[in-house]
Records
---
Amino acid sequence: MSLRHAFERGAKAAARFTGHPTCFGLAVGVVVVWVVSGPLFGFSDTWQLVINTGTTIVTFLMVFLIQNSQNRDSAAVQIKLDELIRAVRRADNTLLDMEELDEATLEQFRARYEALAKKARDGGARAACEDPSFGMEDDDRNDPSRSDQQGADPRNRDGDRRSNTQDEV
């Protein structure tokens, strides 16, 4: 088993364990034992150092476990969203993999969808939702990556309803 695979398995197991109420109970138990043992050790510097060192080490390691878990979850959500965008007939396929775009391009998309939301709130909800070219430049309306620009028959060669047959992996 590779080091990477071992880390992934360990990180998943640690994330499941640390998110469980039992783990919280253990942490509370450690703190209670530490507080109760204070008088036995005269509340010495060593007694304080034990909890400080322990919590520092746990916090340091948890940062990496949390980041790993968050990265995995974020990647899975992005893949699911990409699939939904790809599968919906009128979806804008330019939104696929947009987390990889630069900030300026993301800002353009954000402004476009803010305008769409404003138009919907101002009573043009039906028109805004049904106008596939809303917020698009004239040259975007002829863009073949737009799923709503596909031919009248949205079926691919396998008979599936897909927005764009060239999206298949």
---
Amino acid sequence: MRWLRVLAVILATAVGLVYGVVGAATAAAAPTVSLAYGNGTTGAATATATTAPTLSVASNSKLGSILVASNGMTLYHFSKDSAGVSNCTGACAKLWPPLTVTGTPSAGAGVTGKLGTIKRSNGSLQVTYNGWPLYYFSGDNKPGDTTGQGFKNLWYVVSPTLAVATAATTTKATTTATATLPKTGSGPWPMVAGIVLLITGAGLVLVRRRRAA
């Protein structure tokens, strides 16, 4: 029957409008991620994979002896990491590029700790020192810079005497998932309901007129 096809078109239009309104509202409410941490600079220090980088000790006027990569750039460790585990990925790894290698890392003069590697999610090998994954800071622009020291009280320059990292401790936590329904009068739902009622009402009126005819 023709009036059934007309009603189906009307209902399909209503559904399309609902998805459009909800989708637009969801996109508008989506959070954005900012990389403007610390001094807000991107820096020139970018970690690149090399065959056998040499880690050596440099002298810093404020921090004393510090660990640097073969390019002279300062190296850091992240307090939230644990032995052989990096917890810096995604946006964090852009701000703090990991020191990566394609072979076995070698120790230069004054480096007395244990060097190793861990495999990151992208397959690259990140250098570790006494179990701590090593990073550059993108805000450092030249050898000798230590602008990442103490960042958010989580990032610190690597000392040759850095204590051995401990394994991560795991604790069991019980969480309860609850569903939150949209509040009446908030978000796009009142407008969505109005659109559906308006179009459905118009469709019923049209069907009744066709039947009467």
